[in-house]
Amino acid sequence: MTGQYIPILCAAVVSVGLAAGMLLLSRILGPRNLTKRKTSTYECGVEPTGSTRERFPIKFYIIAMLFILFDIEIIFMIPWAIEFRQLGFLGFIEMAVFIGVLVVGLVYVWKKGALEWD
Amino acid sequence: MISLESYIPALAFLAEAAADAVKTGASEMNFGAGDFFFYLFAVIAVFSAFMVVTAESPISSALFLVVTFFAMAAIYALLSAHFLAVIQVLVYAGAIMVLFLFVIMLLDLRKEELIEKRHWLLGAVGFVVGIALVVLMVASFRLSQNVEVAVKSGTDQEAPDAAKFPAIQESADQIDGSRIEAARFGTTRRVSKHLFREYLFPFEVASLLLLVGIIGVVVISRRRRRRRPPGEVIDEEGAS
Amino acid sequence: MHGIFTLLATSTHVESLDGDWLWALIKAIAFVGIFLTIVPVMTWVERRGSAFIQDRVGPNRITVFGIKNAGLLFPMADGLKFLFKEDFLPEKAEKILYTLAPMMIMIPAFIVYAVVPFSSPIMHESVADDGAITRYIFSIQIAPNLGVGLLFVFAIASLGTYGIIVGGWSGGSKYSFLGSMRACAQMISYEIPLTLSVIGILMVYQTLSLQGMVAHQTGGGLLGISWLPHWGIFVQPLGFILFLVCAFAETNRAPFDVVESDSELVAGFHTDYSGFKFALFFMAEYASMVTMSALIVILFFGGWHIPIITPENPGSYLIDWFRGFDMSLLWASILTTVIHFAVFMAKTGFFLWLFIWVRWTLPRFRYDQLQALGWKVLLPLGLVNVAITALLLLFYGM
Fold first, then answer.
1. Predicted ipTM of the assembly
2. Touching C: A residues 19-38, CB under 8 Å
3. Cβ-defined contact of C206 to A15 (cutoff 8 Å)
4. Domain A56-118 part of CATH 1.20.58.1610
C-alpha cells in the first residue's frame, strides 16, 4: 500500500535537493564582505529603533481561530461531496443540518463585528 | 478500549519482550521497505517531539511540532489511512500550528520569561503520568500484536491470547470479514460511508462543538468597547 | 469516456510503470526542469507584458553579438546575478530559521507538482505467444495513483504559510514582520473559500484524483451539443469565479498583494532577504502561480482535453487517427501525449498571462476590504454554490 507514496517521496527529495543545492551554490559563488552598515536591519536608511518582535493586534488571532473552525467544517464536506450521489437526499439533509448550525455561528460572528477590520 | 486489567499482562509482556530481545538478536527480524519507512518516520516523530519540549525558542518548538505531525501523517499513510494522513497535514500542520505560531508571536514570549522554577510536585506528577503512558503504550502494542496473530491464524483457530482479551477476537473477525475491502480501506469514500451512515450523530454533534468554538473566540477576544450613548461628545484631547 | 480511457478499460492486462521509484525520480527532475524554464519566461512576460499594457517599450537593451532579442536574455542575467551576489545575514536574524524559511516555502511549492497530470499517459503493448495483450502505461504525472489528489495539493500548499511566517519573523525587520502577518492572515482567510469553491465540482466529478477529473471532463454532449465538452466551467460557473478569485489571493498576487505593497512595506515578508534566498521566494511565487493556473485548467477547463474531441464525435481521437497511419501504439500515444501536453501548457499559459494582465490592470485592495471580501462575500457565496449544486443534482442529475 505504500507504493502510491514513493513517487511523492522522490518529488520531495528532488525539491529539497534543488532548494538546498541552489543555496549552497550561491554561498560558494557569492562574495562575502560584511560591514556593520550592510547587516543592520533595513529601515529606509534610518538607524533602526526599538524591537521588531512586538505584540500585534488580536484581530489576527481571531482570524486564525475562525479559520481553523471553518476549515474543519469544509473538510467534513469533502468526503460528503464525493459520495454525494450515493448518500442521496438523506445525505443532503445531514449536511444541511451541519452547515445550518455553522451558518448560525457565522451570522453570530458577523453581527458581533468580529469580521470587521478596523 | 484498554481497561485496567490489561495493564498487568502488559507489564509482564514488557519483561518478556526485554528478555526476548536479549535472546534473539535484531538480525533475525524480518525487515521490509514498509518497516524501514515506519522506523524512519517513527524516529523523526519521536526526535522532533523531544525537540518540541527541549527547544529554547517557542517558535522552534512549534516548528518541531509541525515536523512531528508530518511524520505522524506519514505513518498514517503507511497504515493505509490515506484520508486521515492528508487531513492530519491539512488540519494539524496547516491550520492549528499556524494558530500556535500566531499565539506565540501575539504573546511575544521571550526566552528569559520562560525559565521559571517549577514546584517539585509537578515533576513527580509528570513522572507518574509518564510511567502510566509507557504502560498504556505497551498494553496497546500488545493488544494490536494479538490482533495480528489472530488474523494470521484465521478464525477457526483460537488465537493464543484471545481468551484473555475478548475484544481481540471480535476485532479479528471484523478484519477477516472485510479483507476483500482492504484495498478500499482508508480511502476518502470509505471514510465518507462510515461518517455519514454509521457515525451520523457524532458528526452532527461536531457541528455544535464547532459552533461553541466560534462563539468562544468572539466572546474571549472581542475588544471591550464602551458603548457610547448617542449624542455623546467624544473628548478627542483626553483620549489616550 | 475519452478514447484513451476506453482503450485502457478494455485491456485485459495493464501494467503500470508509475510505482517505480526510478521513473518517479526521473519525472520529478524533468518537471523541475520544465518549471525552471517557465520562471525566466514568466519574468520576461511580466516585464514586457506590463510595458505593453502601460504603453511603454520595456526592457530591450541587452544584445548578444549585435542581435536584439526584445530583452529575452534579461532573465538569464538575473539568474546569474542572484548566484553571484552576496548572501548575507542581517544582524538581528535568527540564523537557522532565516536560512530555512526560503526552503520552507519553495519545497511545498514544488512537491505539489507530483499530482498534476500534465498530459495523457503513454502506452505500449506487447502480444504474447498465446495472443494475450499486455498494455504498459506510463503517466506524465509523478504520482498518478495517489487517491487523495486534490486534497494533497491543498494540504501541501497550506504548508507554504510557514515559510512566510518564519521568513518574516526571523529576519528581525519590521516591514518583513508586518508583511508576513498580513500574508499569513490573508492566505488562511482565503483557504476557506478556495476549498469551499471546489466542493461543488467534487460533487459533480465524484473523485479527488486529478487525472480522474480530467477523464470526467472528456465526455461531450453537454446540453445536447455534441462538441460542447463537460468542462467544469460550464457545470460550475460560480465555483470557477470563486476559485479564480481565491487563486489570486492565495498566491498573494495583485489585486491582493497587500503583503508586499511596495508603498507601505518595501517588499513585504522578504524585505531583508538577499541573493539566492530572495530568488527562492521569487521562484516560489511563480511556482504557486503555475500550480494555481494548472489547477484551474484541470478543475474547470478539462486539463489536457481538446474540446471537439468527444465520444459524440467518434473518429476524432488523436490516438486512433495516428494509428490509422500504420503506427505502433507506442508512437501513436507518444505523439498524442505531446499534443496533449502542448494543449495543457497553452491553457495554463493563458491563466499565467491572466495573472499578469490582472496585476497591471486592477488597483490593490485595502486590507479590510480584502478580509471583508473573503469572509463576507466569498464564504457565503461558496455555501450558496454548494446548496445550488446539491439541489440541482438531487432533482435533475442523479
1. 0.85
2. 19-20, 22-23, 25-27, 29-34, 38
3. no
4. yes
